[in-house]
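Field notebook, page 364. I keep forgetting to write these up properly, so this time I am using the form the group agreed on. The chain and the ligand, 6-O-phosphono-beta-D-fructofuranose, are recorded exactly as supplied. Prediction of the bound pose follows.
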Amino acid sequence: MTTRRRFTLTQYLIEQRRRFPSASGDFNALILDVALACKAIARSVAFGELGSVLGHPTPEVATSINVQGEVQKKMDVISNEYFTQMTEWGGHLAGMASEELEEPYQIPETLQRGKYMLVFDPLDGSSNIDVNVTVGSIFSVLRAPQDVIDSGRDVVEADFLQSGTQQLAAGYALYGPTTMLVLTVGNGVSGFTLDPNLGQFMLTHPDIQIPVDTHEFAINASNARFWEAPVKRYVDECLAGKPGPRAKDFNMRWIASMVAEAHRILMRGGVFLYPRDTKDTSKPGRLRLLYEANPVGMIMEQAGGRASTGEVPMLGVQPTSLHQRIGLVFGSKNEVERIERYHAEPVKVELHNPLFAERSLFRD
Ligand code: F6P
């Protein structure tokens, strides 16, 4: 039996770096530090109850609320610490921002500061952790503003308010049946599977491409009564199946772990919607722009898919705050474009008059 030759993540990064002969290697070292944090999180997640990592950091749920007003899990806190501790020492970062931290994270003055900024959601979908459903980490790498690099000053919120097109790299790790790292450094998307014996991410999914068409959609349908008209129209048409305007049957999926839905869509196509709705008008969407929508958006676009607010391309949105929420639609290109078209078209006035219904006095 011949052993299949596979690239490790390190070898892949060295290959990618050959495109930039003057690159210092800092960027690659940063990605490897992120990968190390993900491996540490994967190990903790894998121990589950045996590792005493499930549940809340404090016995009273009320005191386990994070900056987003969401219930924090022990693994949220542990994952955040792995990210900060394993990436701060390398000298590649000017600062970080995390879903779990209200303010930007400063690289301690005793350590060297660098030219990149790391933005992350250390454990996406963590409401699933206690029920042993796939969770993941999402990250994005930005370049620090020049004055931050020159002066080594503390980072402030405004330094992070860069549109998705300015991301240098984005990725996610998935803690599922296997641990995977999916990465784009702006040259397509590659997937790596963690070999638990070697402790190495091995390139198993080179050059991932999302099918442009799909018959699978993912949305939290319990919010249906709060959806805006274009979203309602899109979902109604999918549900109508073969006899409906789309003339085909659709499947619906909802894991409630965005990172896991993104991975399914990357592997076999599909569309994900967490649109802006009227459930809580103080929140313009459920998901966060800088560390959820933008990194997933970059991965989707790099794999031939599309990411959007429903109205405009996600990566073009100018952020206004660190923890900004936004409506998010991503996945197979033709489907996302259809949803954008529905948003652009004037809202059809629904006539609840039986005379104008599909079968009525005026139709046969
Ligand atoms: O971080 C937000 C998140 O956990 C996503 O991973 C997921 O898609 C969404 O929330 C689930 O929301 P809901 O509870 O409305 O299903």
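OBSERVATIONS:
- Residues 353-357, 359-364 have pLDDT under 50 and may be disordered.
- The two ends are 67 Å apart (CA to CA).
FOLLOW-UP: compare against the apo run.
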